[in-house]
Amino acid sequence: MAGLWNRLYTGTTTVDFYGKRKVGFIFSAVLVIITLGSLIGRGVNLGIDFTGGIAWEVKQSAELTVDTAREVLEANNIETANAKIQTIDSGDAARVRIQVEDQPENVASAVKKSLADKASVDVNEVSQSSVSSTWGRSITEKAAWALLWFFLLVTAFIVWQFEFKMAVGALAAVVHDIIISVGVYSLSGFEMTPATVVAFLTILGYSLYDTIVVFDRVRENTEMYSGSKVSYGDIVNVSMNQVLMRSLNTSISSLLPVVSLLVLGSFVMGAVALQEFAIALLVGLATGAYSSIYIATPLLGVLKERETKYAAMRGELSRGADMGRMIARGMTTTTRTRSATASEKPASESTPVAESLVDASVILSHPPRPRKKRQR
């Protein structure tokens, strides 16, 4: 175990990520199919900020349940087919939340009073919020435009800093993360709000950060092995093993506060408003860490192996001790390069050598005296 931790921290593990890329691709494909099926079949529980409408929330009691709330809506001639009635646990007391389409002011007031009577509370203890359908459409359009601009800017940046094939791999991982994250909301029935969209944009940035870290190491190793016959699959494997511990540390340090936020803040302390944000972060951080290793980088390797430079070595992979020797050779080369740079003498010490290469006429401040002629 100690040896494993030492290899992780020194970046000398020999996990064959690229050789097992099909396993990661198949696993991701299954997850995407399940989540897409849920999105098509069940859809997403959009919050009132997206759909528009009116919502009431009141403390649950023996007299006020989900069925009682539905009866209140029917008594006020409100269609219950599309109504969202759910129980929300908030600490010690549970609350009933009812959300329907836009209603006239008199109908909304009547429902609020009926709910207060059923729950045996004052009418002021029933919270009421409303959002117009126009506002809901505006929020939805802005979220879509924000996502589109995100994709365009990310693509442009990666192409500028790296190359187009790396941009393809990174965006494929981002789309993978979005589909699975939204699919989890569809499967669980959690409400999607503007806070959820903010969380999604946050996790997309995190996912790209982790991917860029791996891509940067791939670029360095591509330059280092450019003079030797090494397959691109080997370069990908070496790079991912070298940054594996960095990815694990980043993922764990990011997930711990999110888990605390979700477990302690939402479930223990009853801050339900944190739940929608924390779940999106939790799912997104987990899928982002996974996709940078099993989606983005292996897909880059598949695309690069089709190039003429690497096509002849396609499928050739160094495993086990052979991969370890490749990693050790790369580390030795880097160390020697740095040592040579550090051992260079400062300019002041090399001055005599430099001066010896300069013409004497340049150094002398006056021309030499002419030699006297000998007297005969």
What does it look like?
The protein is α+β, with helices and mostly antiparallel strands and 376 residues long. The protein has two domains: 211 residues, Multidrug efflux transporter AcrB transmembrane domain (Multidrug efflux transporter AcrB transmembrane fold); 79 residues, Alpha-Beta Plaits (2-Layer Sandwich), CATH 3.30.70. The strands form two sheets. A four-stranded antiparallel β-sheet has the order 3-4-2-5. Strands 1-6 form a two-stranded parallel sheet. Helix 2 crosses helix 7 and helix 9 runs antiparallel to helix 11. About 9% of the residues have low confidence.
Keywords for this entry:
376 residues; alpha+beta; Multidrug efflux transporter AcrB transmembrane fold; Alpha-Beta Plaits; 2 domains; four-stranded antiparallel β-sheet; 15 helices
Strand content: 5-15%
Q: What number is the mean pLDDT? A: 77
H and E order: HHEHEHEEHEHHEHHHHHHHH
CATH topology name of the largest domain, in short, is: Multidrug efflux transporter AcrB transmembrane fold
Q: Class of the largest domain in CATH?
A: Mainly Alpha
How many alpha or pi helices? Answer: 15
Ends: how far apart?
97 Å
The CATH superfamily of the largest domain is known as Multidrug efflux transporter AcrB transmembrane domain
Helix/strand-derived class?
alpha+beta
Any idea what the CATH architecture of the largest domain is?
Up-down Bundle
| Neighbour order of strands in the largest sheet | 3-4-2-5
Low-confidence stretches: 332-366
Q: Label the overall shape.
A: elongated
Secondary structure: helix percent: 55-70%
What does the main sheet amount to?
4 strands, antiparallel
Domain count, please report it: 2
Q: Radius of gyration, rounded?
A: 32 Å
Total beta-strand segments: 6
